Amino acid sequence: MATLEFTKMHGCGNDYIYVIADKTRPADPGGLSARLSDRRFGIGGDGLILLAPSRRADVRMEMYNADGSRGEMCGNGIRCLARLARERGLVSRNPVAVETDCGIKTVTLIFDDGRISGATVDMGEPILEGREIPVAAEGRIIDHPLEVAGRSWRVTAVSMGNPHCVVFLDDDEILKLDGGEFARLGSGFEHQPFFPRRVNTEFIVPVSRGHLKMRVWERGSGETLACGTGACAALVAAVLTGRAERRATVERRGGKLESEWRERGEGANHVFMTGEAVEVFRGQIELAPGELVPANA
Question: What DSSP character marks residue 231?
């Protein structure tokens, strides 16, 4: 048998299983993610994140969704990963440079009485060109009509390294849907052919120009309590459609994230996100022989 050590962490309830993959790593991380993410028969989580060595940055983040598919980026996950790297002595500097599948992101850790309580992430520039998001259309997709679940919606598409579809609502009816109804709606958006690589969908109720309420369906994971890249995409879409200022609180059931789409100065046109990074527990699980391989294999 092989023993896998892990740390369960969350950012605003968006929870992942973290594994330090500097010496050994899962032979099939996608398959392991699907197995361990099961909340009844596994550890439970929105996916698996590997903290791996990097030749280009301080550390590397490899993210796998709860269905085993590979994810490019996770805003809540990267904050927790940076905290884990610092507390386990893998990095000593602050900010932390993290290599992801969509480039190197800078994470500035926030300390409270000497302990890490959260982080601010420079998420980079939003991608607004349709073919680069990608969607099956050219140009910016702003308040674009789209048929899903037998209904016409107005959607705004944004990529924060992963594709997002933002839907603005006049009331909170959809925010109150039961889990089954919301799953059918979210899955309908995720698999709409307009999004060739599937999509994360944010349903947004603007409370004020500085406050957005969000319910999210994540590609490959289903409904989650929060989504960091989704909060950033929601802010960008709200600014593009005249519904918000460039700095806003994005509220989800799991907590609040602060997002800013900087207009000028250092980091102009970059989106910055600030939120908590919480360790829940540590543990180990026995795997079958061959399920762990040398990290450099």
Answer: H
